[in-house]
Structure formats: C-alpha cells, structure tokens
Design goal:
Number of domains: 2
Strand order of the largest sheet: 3-4-7-8-9-10-11-12
CATH superfamily of the largest domain: Glycosidases
Number of helices: 11
Distance between the termini: 40 Å
Length: 502
Amino acid sequence: MSHPLKASMVIDKHYRIADIDDRIYGSFIEHLGRAVYGGIYEPGHPAADARGFRQDVADLVRELKVPIVRYPGGNFVSGYNWEDGVGPVADRPRRLELAWRTIETNEVGTNEFAEWAKSVGAEVMMAVNLGTRGADAARNLVEYCNHPSGTYWSDLRVRHGYPQPHRIKTWCLGNEMDGPWQIGGKTAEEYGRAAAEAAKVMKWVDPTIELVSCGSSNAGMPTFPQWEATTLEHTYEAVDYVSLHQYYGNRTGDTASYLAKTLEMDHFIHTVISTCDFVKAKKRSKKTMNLSFDEWNVWFHSNEADKRIEPWSIAPRQLEDVYNLEDALVVGCMLMTLLKHADRVKIACLAQLVNVIAPIMTENGGKAWRQTIFYPYLHASTYGRGQALQPIVSSPKYDCAEFTDVPYLESAVVYNEERGELTVFAVNRHLEEPLQLECDVRSFGNLRLIQHLVLEGDLQAVNTAEEERVRPHAGGNSAFEDGFIRSVLPKASWNVIRLARS
C-alpha cells in the first residue's frame, strides 16, 4: 500500500519578503500580429467604441486589473520612428516592419495607446528605440509625452488633440539589444554607452521618470550574465531597473520537466541579482538595483505555423499560441516565482496581453475569450496584492530528465494586512497523485476559510470561443481548524486557498 504524498508549510506573518509592487502584474502590447489591429483595436467591430477600441477586450483587461502595459515593443521598437504614429491618421505612413516582416499601418500610435491604457486603468511603460535611433529621438518622445506645453514637441502634442501630458513614468531603454535578431543590435559596451546617454537626457527633460536598462535577451544567451555586468558599468547610477526576459515551452512532451522550468527561472533571477550587487559593490554605490521581468510567458505552440506566414501582410495571425491546462500550471508557477522575489522584482510583464501569446483571444468581427492562462494571472492579480511572505516549506521531491530534486509543491504566500486576508497559491506538480498539504497559520490569530479555487483536469484541454473547457471551480478540498489549513491539492493542479480574519 502506497503512502499518500504529504507537504507542509509554516506561515508566519512576521516572515516578510517585501511589499509587492502592483506592477508585478503588468503586461505587454507590441505592434505584432493581432495584438493591436484585431486585438485591442478593431474599428467596425460591434463592440468597438467611437475610437475603434474593442470594449469586450477592454472589459477582460479590466477584469485582470492590469496595472501597467509595456508598449510598443519588443523587437518592433528597434526600428520604430515614433513620429510615424502621431498626428492625423490619414497622414501617417505605412512602413515595412522588419522585425516581424509585416506592414505597419500606424493607425494606432502613442496618443491612442495612452488613451486606451487610461481607459482600462493601466499605466504605460514606454520603450524607446535604441536600435536605429538614440538619445535625440528618446528625449523628444519624453518631451512630447510628458512636458505640459510651451515647447516644440509638447505643443505638437497639444495640436494633435492632447492638451494634457500623458505623464508616462516608466521607460525602457531599448529591447533585447544583445540579440542578433535585433534591428541595430549592439555589443555590451556600445549599448551601455548609448543607454547611459539616452538616460541622461531623458531625465534632464523629466527628472521624475524611471528607466529600465536592457538585460540579456534570455538566460541562455552566450552574453549572459557578462552583458549585465558590462552594461551596468555604464548605466548603474542612471537607471532604476534592469530587465529580464524568459519564455518556456514543452517541445519534447516531457511534462514533468516542463512543470519544473521555474527552478531555472529562480536561478536566472538569483544570477541577475548577484550580478547587480557585484556592480553595486564594485562602484561602492549605496543604490540597490531592482529588476523588471518585462517579458515572461509560455511560447512554443505557434512556432511552426509562424514560419508559413506570408511576408508583408497586415496584422497576420502571428504568435497565436493556443494554451492548454499544462501551460496554465507553468504560468502559475512563474507568477509564484516572481512573488517569491518581490524584494527585487518590482515590475513584470506577461508577454503579451491579446492574441499574441496571450491570455485573451479574439476573432475578427467575433468574440473575445479567456485562454487557460488567463486564470492564474487573474487570481494572482486579484488576490496577490499586499506582502509576500516567506513560508517554511517541506515537500516530497522528484527527479526528471532536466532537473533533480524538484518539489512537488510549488507555492507562494501573500498577506494583505489592510484587508486581513491571507492567500496561499499552490501547484501540485505530481501528474498522478493528489498532495496533502498542511499549513500552520497560527501566528495570524482567528481566521476563517473563504475559498479554495482549483484548476484541474485534462492537461491538454484548451479553451475556444465556443467552449471554455478549462476554468476554475470553488470546490477545492480544504478545511481550517485550530490555526491549521488542511488541503488536498488534486494531481497536476493550480490552487488558490484564501482566508480572512474572523
């Protein structure tokens, strides 16, 4: 007779990692595929407003409570002239978009996107082009967006119909500049100098802005982590964050290894933190560099289909991954990894938001719907605000093809002191057996169990416009007594266990 799998957690309200920055639940809209055209924007759609923005999509974005959205790229930004996207739409040029080999119509640009973001309750995280352009175009864009009036670029914005400045606070200094696929890619020394000079003049225009320096394009780059060490030699005192990007996939059908990928993500974050702190020590700086994990997600389903896209089309179905339950579990694990590093990860962007490797999908002229990954994102954004706690965890482990000593229990804990709510996020990685979980929460005093939400079922199940096969249910198996939560986490499941003060 086999013994049941058991795990335990001791959760103490005094074991705090950090206050969670709401921007950790950010997302990303790039001028890529149907993210903009046919995604957030589709004039003539029954749900479109007078400006052409789909309100059914906007409603889903509001449901996710997205606090910040990175824009307009991504690889796109490294060849983008921001001036093409402002002023009368009829006068805007169509351009060959080299990053994704499409035609960019420029119907939507800086002002339209800023207005859309405001309408869904999100800030804009604006990226500047440090590929084909540099400090001059960057400072002009800051002036156009943020200066009240009385100068050339700010008055041009006023003439374009936007008398009030957009007051964009957070800015990215280019994108993935060590990537050979990047338009105007650079060596670490070249990028470090260019970013430092752009940062200098951008902050001269508006000293209140925050800046993100490009880190390596992903943890597997041959330049990583020396890229961070070299570029930060130039940018350390001028910027506020360094970026991280990472995507995962299950190309070999090895689910056990796929669900363990966040061990690699955790190591990636630790390495970037160590590199930042090395530069801090070397410079004898008093400043601690924080992280912006501004691209993260699952991305692999659409890779083959994208090879067949006709070049120079407009808004093709590009990077349209259809996600299953297995992917949702990985996204949940990635969210928990970010929460466990809330002391240094202050911004994070699920890439992307609509149609392009996204939680929200649309049909042109038709419905918008929630993909499987929508739900862990929704739950974290809704219930994961407050303080990240550091529990003491004991879990059985497994070995797989890519990793050893993988805990079956992946978890994160958030305490919202103001609301008196405690949330335990948990994934059971075991593919065959439920996991019995006991949580000691006696330090919180009198609590009551509110809810145990679960995502479970067929790991290959997907959602479509016609049928939502993967959705959470509130029938999780949890009980609370004498300061202990006792739960059963179904095999291969995402769980949200919520308690509140009595």
